[in-house]
Specification:
The chain has two helices and 14 strands, in the order αβαβββββββββββββ. 17% of the residues lie in helices and 41% in strands.
Amino acid sequence: MPNQKSNKMRTTWLILLAMVLAGIAMYYLANRKKPLAPFDSISIINTPDSIRQKLRLYVAYDPAEVTFRDSAWFEHDSIPLKEISLRNTPNSFDKNYQKATFFLDYDHRYFYDIEVQKPAPDAAYELSFAVDNALDTFRIQGIINDPERDQLRLTGPMMQMYQAFVLTYNSKMPPRTDSTDDAPPATPASRTITVVKK
């Protein structure tokens, strides 16, 4: 009889212990953070060191307006843009975003903005840029590579910078509500640069 009683007690304790462990496991699984998805990588390639040393990269997440003022980039609410280090090649950075605009800044004299829209936030992109100077014009060539889907190539001149200016992405601004304007709306430019100080 004592053996049967001790066996029942042991079984009861084992059941209780199993229930506690199951509860801890369920709590852990419900509250653990999702694993980080692969990181984006960015690199500067085929660019002379004299240019590379003066390049800086900033990022804003789906901005409607961005301001440059006194050698710094800001969002419309005066929050400084995050700078992504270009010291390592390639450089990996957290990519938990779906829409972002990258600003490649050469010596606060020229810039190029690249809008990136992903099909999903967990897609990992590889970005690479080359900058050269010909006839006093800085040009950029870039590749945005999605290893699972497609590749986008871009090229164009970098734009001149001013001491202070506002870069507005018109498609992200609310529509005009001027009822006195009877003229049909013209196709707006995709973005507008407003010079505040030359």
